[in-house]
Structure formats: C-alpha cells, structure tokens
Amino acid sequence: MIPSSFDYHAPATLAEAVALLGKYPEDAKVLSGGQSLLPLLKLRLGQAGHLIDIGKIPGLEYIKEEGGMLRIGGRTRESALERSEIVQKRYPILVDTAKVIADPIVRNLATVGGNLAHGDPGNDHPATMLALGAQVVAMGKSGERVIPIDKFFLGLFRTALQPDEILTEIRIPAPVEGSGGAYVKLERKVGDYATAASAAYVVIGTQGFVERAGIGLTNLGPTPIKATAAEKYLIGKKPETAALAEAARIAAQATEPSADRRGAVEYKREMARVLTGRALKKAVERAGGK
Amino acid sequence: MTTRNVGQPFVRRDGRAKVTGEARYSYEVAVPDAVYGVLVTSGIAKGRIVEIDTSAAEREAGVLAVISHKNALRLPGEPHLEGPDRVVQALQDDRIRYSNQPIAVAVADTFERAVHAAMLVRVNAEVAAHTVRVEDELHNAFPHKIMAGGKLQEPDESHGDVAAGLVAGAARVEEAYETPFETHNPLEPHATVASWSGDRLTVYDASQWVFAVKKKLAKGFGIPPENVRVVTKFVGGAFGCKGSAWSHVVIAALAAKQVARPVKLALSRHQMFGPVGGRPRTRQKVAVAAQRDGKLTAIRHETVSPTSRFDVFVEASALQARHLYASPNIESRHRIVRLDIGTPTFMRAPGESSGSFALESAMDELAHRLEMDPLALRLASYAEKDPADGKPFSSKSLRACYQEGARRFGWEKRPRTPRSQTRSGQFVGMGMATAMYPANFAPAQALARMLPDGSAQVESGTIDLGTGAYTVFAQIAADELGLPFEKVRFDLGDSDMPEAPIAAGSMTAASVGSAVLVASRALRDRLIRTAIVDSASPLHGLAPIEIRAEDGRLVATSGKSDSYVELIRRAGGKPIEERGKTAPGDEREKFSMHGFGAHFAEVLVDPDLGTVHVSRMVGVFATGRILNARTARSQFLGGMVWGIGMALHEHSVFDEKLGRIMTRDLSDYHVAVNADVGSIEPLFLEEEDAHVDPAGVKGAGELGLCGAAAAIANAVFNATGKRIRELPITPDKLL
Amino acid sequence: MDLVPLTTPSREKLRLAFTVNGEPRDLVVESYKTLLEVLREDLGLTGTKHGCELGECGACAVILDGELVLSCLVAAVECPGRSATTVEGLRQGPELHPLQQCFADHGAAQCGYCTPGMLVAAKWLLDRNPRATRGEIAEALSGQICRCTGYLQIFDAVEAAGRTLRGEPAPAPLLPSVHRGSTNGR
Q: Hey, are the CB atoms on C56 and A2 less than 8 Å from each other?
C-alpha cells in the first residue's frame, strides 16, 4: 500500500495536466509509468498530495521519424521502444539501453520520459541521450520549449523541468552514414541499477576519421555524465584500438562515483574505463568502422 | 515389501492447488472477523524506550489498539522452549536489544489502517552504545555446546597432535576464510493468524514446526498445550527461518487476546532482517597439511560466529572437519561472540555450507601447493571409517560420486594452470568440492487409517515446504498397504495430528517417512489379524506370514484373497486405524551416518569486469534411497543454485554505525536469479542403507548446498589465479 | 522503514469498476491501495502473491489490458475500465491451462509461492510469442525470483506448454539419472 492518501487526477488533456501541476506546485507528482514513483511513495521517500496521472492523455505514446529526428512520446513504454521496428533497425543503442532497464515486467509500464524526468543518475536513458545529443520537449503553462539534453540534468533528482512542466517528447537526431552507437552496462544482477554503464556514439567520416563523438555515463556521479573531454579527444582521430582506449581512459577521469554497495570509487572508475572502451568499440563496429 | 510406488517419480500432489492459485498460505486462510496487526520496530540497535507515544495512532479511524510494553498483556510464562527455539521479544519490557526489534503492534480493521497507525507511533529511546562487529568482541569469544543433528555436541574436539602433523607435511595451507551474514528470504514473508476462543487458541502460521509453535504459545500464555492448535498447510519457502516461532508469532496471539478478535500479522520484507534471524557471519581458520602423496597429516578447523546478547546459536562450521577426511591429527574448535543483533539461526545446511566453503577451499589450495589434482588429493585421504571415532559408515558411496561426477563433468579437461583457457574472451575455470551432511533422524509419529471405501488416509503433523512431503509419504504408505498411489491420501500440517519433528535438517523424509512406514505396516498387520479371525473371510484361520497386501487386497500365498472394502464392511463399516512411531535407535551409536556427494563447477570470468558466470555444474549425490526422483531432483537443483547465490551474491550487509542491516529488500539482498543459472545437473547414486533408518533415506534438502560455493570459488581460482577467501565473490574482489 | 508521522489521511474513496478474469467487478476502494491489495483483500483472489511490495520479486504479476505488470506497482485508481487476468483466470472450467499442467508435471511449482506470477508471465509471453525459445523464456521471466526450484524446471515447463499449445508433442519432464551406488564406497 501507499502509506498516505492522495487526490487522484486523471486529466484528459495536456493543458489540463499542466494546469493541475500549476495549481499544486508543492504537492503534486506526475504519474507516468509509476515504476519508480510507487516504490518511492511506498517507502515514504516521497509524498504526493496530488497524483496527476497522465496516462489518460491521448497522443503521448509514439515512436516516429520526422524531420530528421526520431521522436519518442514522453509516455512511451520502455517495452514499446524495445519492440519498435524502426528502433531495432536504426537505433540499436536504444535497444541496448531499454533492454537493461530494470526487468521486462517493469519495462511494460516504465516510460522513457519518466526515466529521464526522474533525474536519477542511476537511470539508463540519460547517458544514452547525452551520447546521442538528444533534445527534450517540455510543456508548461507558458507553452512548449525544447531543452538540449546536456542542459537537462542539474543535480541529484533535479532536472531543468519546471514544477508545472511535463516532458512530452524526446528528439534524437536520425542516424547518418557512418554513425553507430552502443550502450554497455555492468549490473550486479538483472534489474539492478548500473554499477557503471557507458553509452557511446560516433560518426565516422568517409575518410575514416571520427567526425562526431558522444559519450554518456550512468551512475558515476550525482548526475548523468557527458564525457566531453573524451568526446573532443576522439574528433579527427582514426577509431583504432589505441585511440578508443585513450578516450575511455579520459572518460573515466570525468566520473565522480561514490562508494556504495556496488563498489569502491576506484573500482567504479575502472569499470567506467572498461565499459566505455567496450561501448566505443561496439559503436565503431556498428558505424561500419570495423 | 513391494516397492511399486517408492522410487517412482510421481508428480507433486500439491501441484494442482499451487498452479491454480487455490493453495491458501497461512495469511490467506479466511478467518471470520479477523483484524490486522502491523509491527512497529526499533530504529536503533540498543537502548531503552523512554517514551512511546501511540496517541496519534489510536485516534485513527478503525484502529482497535496500539500495544507496546506499556499496555501489553503480561505473559504468565516465558515463551521459550528447550532445543532449537529462539528467545523472543513480545512487548514485555522497555529494552531494545537489536535494530528492527518489534516494540509495538498496531491493530486495525484493515491492513492499510494498521500500517498507517504503525507509522504514527512515536518512540523516544535512550540510545546505548552497540556493536555489531565480530572483531570488537573477539576478546570475549567463548565456547558453547552445539545443538546439531538433534543432539548436543562439543564445541572442541581434537585427536592426535595437530601441531606436529602440520609441520610433518610436505605442504601446508593455513588461511582465514569468511562467510557473511545471510538472510533466508523465502518468497513468502512470515505470517501468523491467531484466533482465541476462550482459553483455546488456533493459529495459522507460516511454520516448519507446528508442534514447537503450539508448545511455545501454551507455555507463554500459561495454558495446556492441548488448548493450542497450529495449522500450516502450505509454506511459501522457509529454509530454516520458519523453524522457530519468532516474536511476531507470540505478538499476534497476544494482540488477538487483547483485542478479543482474530489477528492477522504478516512481516514486511524488511522485517525479515533482524526480527527473524539469518545465517551468522563466520570467521574461520583452516590449516591442512599433507605428504607428497596427498595423505593429510593434519586438519585444523576453527570458527567464530556471532550470536545475540540474549540467546545462543552456533554456526557449526567446523563439525564436518571431524568426519570428512582421514588424518591422524584432527582438531576442530567453535567459538561464539555476543553482538547487539537479533539471534541468528539455522539456514539451509547450517554449519556445513559455511564450513565447507573454508575447508574445501583450503583443500584446493593444498592441492595447488602440492601440484596435485584436487580430486586426487581428496581420494588420497578418503575416510574408510569415520575419523572422529573409527565407526564404520552406515553407507558411503563418495568415491563413486567423485568418479561419476568427474566423468560426467569432464574433469580431465580442467585447465592445469589458472588463466590458461579462454572462451569468447573470458577465462574458463573448473573446480570441485566434496559435499557432506549428517543423516539426521528424530522421533516421529504417524497415523494410518483404512477407510470403508478401501482407500487409506495417512497423516502426520509434518510440513511440506515444497519438498514433496504430501507426495512421498503417500508413496511409502501405498507400498506398505498394497494400494495404488491414488488410493492413499497423506495429510499434514496440523498440531492435532501425530507429532512430527521440525521439517528441517534434511530429516523429514527419514523421520516421518519411517513413522509412516511403521504406522502403515501396523495397520496392514491389524487388517491381516482382523481377516484371519473373521470366519466370513476367505483368509480365516491362515497364518499372518502367509498373507501379503496387494492391489487393495490381502492375498494369501494360496491365491485366496479378501478386499479391504469387504473386510471393513464385515467388521462394522468403521475406519480402522493404527499409529506408528519411530525414534533413533542403537544403530546410531554403531555407525556414522552421512550423505555424501561431489560438486563440479565450471565458471567463466570476464578478465576486465570481474564478473563470474557459473556455466556448468554437475553434482553427484549418494544419500540413501531416493523416494521420488522428481522431488529429489528439485531439492538438489535448488540446493546447487543456492550454492551459486552463496558464492556470488548473498550478503546481509550491516551498517555498523547504525547497527542494522542495510540490504533489507530484494533489490539489495541478492539471491540467484535465472540469469545466474547455466547448465545444472544433479544425479544420484542410490544406496541401500539398512542401518540409517527404517525408510533407508539420508535426506536431500541440505546436501546439494554443502560444498557448492567452494566448488565455484575453486573454479574461480582455476580461472583467474585469484583465491577469494571471503564470500561473496563479487567482481570488485577479482580486479 | 523508518517511521515518519504524517498528517491524517482520509481522502475520498474511489469507485473502481473493472473486469477481473472476464467478470465485471464494481467496488469502492481507498486511493492508497494498489491493484495487488484490491485483488487479494477486496476480491479474495489470493492466488496473486505478496512477496516484497516493491516490484523486486515478481510474485504479484498479473496481465492488465494485455500487458504483463507488477500489481504491487499499479495504483488501484489507475484501473477503472481496465481488464485484469490473474492466475485464477488461466483455467477454463476444471481443465488446467497447458501451462498449469506443465508446471505441475515438471515440478516447476515447489513451494508454490512464486508460481502464480511465473505462470501469468509465461502466459503473457506465449500469447505474444507462441514460439518463444528457451532464451526468450528466460529473458521474459528474468525479473521473477524463485527461491526453491533452481529455475530450470520452470523453463522446461514453459517450453513444454508452448509445444502443447502449438499442437506439437511435448517432451517428458526431465528426471535425473539414478544409479545404484555401492554401499561400501569401494
């Protein structure tokens, strides 16, 4: 049971939902898939006087390519992402990511938007979205705005979303010739948060040099980490073993893990290096580089 | 005796109820007018309750009572029994002895209201300094007799000159090993439903031993034991933690008495860490030495484990060193220390599972030092008789287990040196270990009843933990009575039935099985006697020895026969019943009785991530007679998978500052999940053991876990060259 | 959990009209209940089990509008108008569903407490993917904990049920080899 009662709202439109959030700025929680929210409420780590269920609002679940972007509705289930043909064919990094989120049953309700909006550095999509250079669309009372993903994660459980804003869409640049990405996660067991995980995305030009690189890291600091120094290092390099290893080493330096039951600081940093190396290798392979 | 049913792999009798959702576990039994109890537990590890404010909780709608030490009924007796029982905290005083100790219970008309009320209770406690670290109390370590295998055993035992033996060997290993606190975590949380009618108490409890619950409650409430009835028809896993009636059981009965309504009380998952004990941590030291040919010149096994301040449990990790390998010099020592924790308790293969990790790891280290095959080392010191006292084994097929296991597993392909074999980028390693667990046996009773329709009803108040009791005891009775399996119903789980021992320690099949056998045989003999004195029976006047039971009839050697239906009809149409009881006899003094086995494990270790995957396990076990290969296989498979969990995952981590377990849920307390399980093959070498017990069985529940973690740890060494002496083997330890 | 006092909760109860195992149900529930508690307490359908309350064990799995979900992580207030299938709804009449039969035959139910969740998850899998491979079965059940069996019998049972549902001959339950051991150990 949820140890406190709440008022339940099931708005029929986005505008209504935003209005409700505006009405209860201190005391409302958005119920998307509920797979993180319900445990929090049950453990009383969070409280909600008002639960705003956005599940009855039509048009928030979709996966489509449009205008050079992959557009994912904020309430799209992880399982839908995992099963989507277009994602399987063109965005294997998203399949990598979705497949290691919690466990299959949780993924049937958990949503992509929720995974990002929760602001949990242990969640898996943030790193991938950082690597891909995604954008997040937020709807608030003053309308819609687009937030670049690298401006989205502000702190532990803190994002750029305003209290009255709802994450409605994620936009990912469509793959170009020579691009590839991969997400590699180390977890203690199925369903666990990452001990460490790394997302890598590369675009390799026709001459065989890296033109773009994105690296995101999971659960290795108070926020999801974009390993910018490592990304920069790779630009203009041939994606060969030594360069990838060096990029992985630089990426690991960007981490600020804390010691916990998943391991000590040094161990996690080392895992960040190993996993980034593996993610880059796989990304390069997918880009056709090997 | 014909054995048409025993040995057949019949499908579990209770399977249908379980797959349809109809099986009602204790909490689900419908009891009219029941209200709900929810425990309030302590947030500190040690101290005294100065003030407990229940007023806000009591004001809530639907709340019947909030019971703490301030207003709890004073129990007229001490709810504690001799033997494997635990001292409980039933709201009788203001002392806080461990974190998560029950300190109050909120009772309300719905579960939700009770939870809510429990959350409103405010406690002001005087905090005392605590320690939950074994290291802090080592200077106060002391020996204590060990309750194991139904008898008290000495903490220390020694023969020969171990010090000299250790020096005499060509190679020696002296190392320290550790196993962590573990928590049973059956899927079904503990639950009790208590209902009073005057001074008679009925309890539905998630229990492994209804008779202990009954006696304990009778003692605590000062009522005759016959006034208490305890019922347990289905248990959602137990593994030892439901072998004792913990505080919540007494509190449920107390609350029910106080509010004069039946009370249902279930523990939340996090309340299963502390208020219910787990396996204690062990710090062990093993010294083994051997000659060049592998003959052991000495074995020394010492262990320290913690218990609570108010009760004693000894994790008897060094017991097996007394019996496992031949050596002229063997010493074993057990010490315990007191900590501010809830009392630890027996958890699947208590002693042998934790102890075998140390001893069998040390044997592997010794083999490595001698540059000898680990299996050859074990064979070189194969004990033909029990090294502790020279008694013969009632049966022992360990050598054949080693041989068959090595063959099935492909032991000869074991990499000779660590880090020498890889498969898809991962190191491959193989390891083995011996399994040993005593063939326990305790007094048990059963009743067998022939019904007018020619079917039999057999019962004993034992428990089916998912082990197969409902099924295998019907098989035994069917053979004794000459009935097809379908014509015998076996019922259990009620303290109004004939008394059975705790369903634990791998002794249920032996003990209850033997009682069922004796009762059924007595019933058959009585039916035979009834027939031969009945002038209307075709068997009238024959000698009993000429008559056997077959296909629902009594059949004479001459071919004449009489059916049970006819026999009972002529005898007045009433059911005919007999009771049977068994108890350990002289044979137990003459023989050493153990089940044995050999584990072989293959692991794949990621060189950069340190992750371990157990790709293959083969276990060969010799444990007397196999009553039902299907249910026995499940027991061993489950035991071996517990070995994977023990080797790689399970760990109740204490926050030493707060004095409590941090890993209080299933996302932090990891058990083996299906991704951990590769190919696992348990197989049996069936033994005919005429000495061990009338049923000829040596037990199945624990043996599959004994040695399993060591085999995996030894395989990890073979893969990586890293010897991990502290479980669990997490990836960080391998880097 | 640590006890945190909170203000009086007495928000309004909510009407919950939905379908369970094909039967319409109409009741009034408190907003703080999860679907799991409504099923077990209000409707007496105790087949769905309560193992951890936090979505970690899978014992509470049910099918909701065709999707496999953890009923302990679904608020009852989300359920009006929806349709739930629990273990009690697998069987049509006295005949067991092939999955139920195979679970019983293969010893996939041991203590039985994880069994309803496993069955419902397996049903959902086979409904969507009648030719699920062993790997897909393991993946689909990867979030569910069994503490007794060692999992292999569960995979075997789901595989066998898949075959039965496809009209193919199902393999007999696996039994270990039992050899005669010597009694003297020589």
A: no
Q: Which pLDDT value is given to residue C12? A: 64
Using the Cβ of C39 and the Cβ atoms of chain B, whether some distance falls under 8 Å is answered with no
Q: Are the C-beta atoms of residues B425 and B723 closer than 8 Å to each other?
A: no
Q: Chain B residue closest to A44 (CA)? A: B119
**Residues contacting A240, CB < 8 A, separation 6+:** none
Distance of alpha carbon C132 from alpha carbon B13, whole angstroms: 29
Q: Among all chains, which residue has been given the structure tokens 């009620």?
A: B494
Q: Which residues of A touch C32 (CB under 8 A)?
A: 1-6
Residue B154 a catalytic site member: no
Name the packing angle between helices B708-720 and B629-648 (round to 10°).
50
Q: Please report, for residues B51, B130, C46, the alpha-carbon distance to residue B122 in angstroms, rounded to integers and kept in the order given.
A: 8, 22, 33
Give the tens place of pLDDT for each residue, C1-58: 333 333 333 456 889 999 999 999 999 988 889 999 999 999 999 999 999 989 999 9
Q: For B261-312, write each residue's pLDDT tens digit.
A: 999 999 999 999 989 999 999 999 999 999 999 999 999 999 999 999 999 9
- The 10s digit of each residue's pLDDT in A148-186 is 999 999 999 999 999 999 999 999 999 999 999 999 999
d(CA C138, CA C117): 14
pLDDT at C181: 59
Query: How many CB atoms lie under 10 A from the CB of residue A178?
Result: 17
Sheet of B547-550, strands arranged across: B547-550, B553-556, B561-563
Give the separation between CA B77 and CA B67, rounded to whole angstroms: 19
Tell me if chain A has a CB within 8 Å of the CB of B633: no
Domains of chain C, start order: 14-89 (3.10.20.30), 98-165 (1.10.150.120)
pTM score of the predicted model = 0.96
What is the C-alpha to C-alpha distance for residues A159 and A156, in angstroms, rounded to an integer? Answer: 8
Per-residue b or e along B506-520, where b marks 16 or more CB atoms closer than 10 Å to that residue's CB: bbbbbbbbbbbbbbb
> CATH homologous superfamily for A179-286?
CO dehydrogenase flavoprotein, C-terminal domain (3.30.390.50)
Question: How would you list the strands of the sheet with B488-491, edge to edge?
Answer: B488-491, B456-459, B444-450, B576-582
For residue A263, the distance in angstroms to the closest alpha carbon of chain C comes to 21
Residue extents of the structural domains in chain A: 7-50, 63-173, 179-286
Look at chain B and count its residues: 735
Of A289, A35, A109, A262, give the one whose Cα is nearest residue A182: A289
Q: What secondary structure does DSSP assign to B27-61, as a single string?
A: GGS--TT-EEEEEEE-SSSSEEEEEEE-HHHHHST
Task: List the structure tokens of B667.
Answer: 């996302």
Residues of A in contact with C10 (CB under 8 A): 5
Question: Nearest Cα to B598, choosing from B349, B318, B356?
Answer: B356
Please report the domains of chain B, with CATH numbers, ordered by start residue: 15-21+442-583 (3.30.365.10), 31-129+185-272 (3.30.365.10), 140-182+278-440+589-734 (3.30.365.10)
Structure tokens at C13: 């109860």
Q: State pLDDT tens for residues B426-477.
A: 999 999 999 999 999 999 999 999 999 999 999 999 999 999 999 999 999 9
Q: Which CATH architecture best describes the domain A63-173?
A: 2-Layer Sandwich (3.30)
Listed residue (C153, C177, C151, C155) closest to B408, CA to CA: C177
Give the C-alpha separation, A162 to A141, whole Å. Answer: 10
Residue A40's region, left for phi above 0, alpha for psi from -120 to 50, else beta, is alpha
Q: How far is C183 from chain A (nearest CA, A)?
A: 42
Contact C179 B685 (CB under 8 A): yes
Closest CA to C74 of A166, B119, B36, A8: A8
CA distance B277 to B266: 16
| Integer angstrom CA distances of residue C1 from A38, B42, B100, B402 | 15, 10, 9, 48
